[in-house]
Amino acid sequence: MARISNIYLFFYNSVQAFGWAIALFRILIHFFSTKSVNGGYASAGELICLLQTLALFEVLHGALGIVPSGFIFPLMQWGGRTHFLLAIVRQIHEVQELPAVFITFVAWCCIEVIRYPFYALSCLGNCPSFLTYLRYTAFIVIYPIGVIGEMWIMYQSLPVIIEKNLYADYFASVPFSYYTFVKAVLICYPFLWLQMYLYLFKQRRSKLYPRSEKDKKRK
To answer: Helix, strand, or coil here: 103?
Structure first.
């Protein structure tokens, strides 16, 4: 069973790595050909929507115990990204050409073309040390850039949300609107992000400096 799950995880992570690499390639080709940062969504938005939706499997992997990461943090990350991407960027055309979309998508792609190959090669037990180092280091700079981009886009979407009364039917049975919900998400976002960011640093210490962690426990 362990061998079957490793084969499955290798296949899943390889598909995701290939997909995110294509998305990054499309975004950069569009940027270099047009010299514009306004085409982030047009160049790769639908592909990124598909890849992000498929990432729900990662929550299931943790919930079913296929991977040891659990499901809480994967669910938080998947839920935040998917809401931002499908409910806001994909549906609100007014924000799709913002430079922040380009910046956010490039940040996401850069993280994922490191993360998924790391997971895929780890399934084979043959992950090079430089990739391990990148996996647990690149997020220090790239992750904040992506989160700032997400928050800026959500903020920019607020006037459109209230003007169009977006998702009014879905929120008719609750005592607040989608506009209020997005404002609440914006307020909570930095705190949730900080929790995840610190968790990644904890992972970094345990993966890159396992001996020092053992030494601390002995003391």
So the answer is: helix
pLDDT bracket for residue 216 (50, 70, 90): low
Show the tokens assigned to 177.
């609107």
| DSSP assignment letter at 128 | -
* Tens-digit pLDDT profile for residues 33-64: 999 999 999 999 999 999 999 999 999 999 99
Report, as an integer, the average pLDDT of 145-169: 95
Residue with tokens 């669910």: 75
Whether the CB-CB separation of 153 and 95 falls below 8 Å is answered with yes
CA-based end-to-end distance of the chain:
39
* pTM of the predicted model as reported, rounded to 2 decimal places: 0.91
DSSP for residue 124:
T
Q: Is residue 216 part of a domain?
A: no
Percent composition of the chain: helix, strand, coil (DSSP 3-state, to 5):
80, 0, 20
Q: Which domain holds residue 33?
A: 2-209
Number of domains in the chain: 1
218 domain residue, yes or no: no
With CA atoms as reference, report the closest residue to 159 among 103, 102, 92: 92
Residue 87: per-residue pLDDT: 96
The answer as to whether 19 is a domain residue is yes
Are 100 and 149 in contact by the 8 Å Cβ rule? The answer is yes
Exposed e or buried b for every residue in 125-154, given b needs 16+ CB within 10 A?
eebeeeebebbbeebeebbebbbbbbbbbb
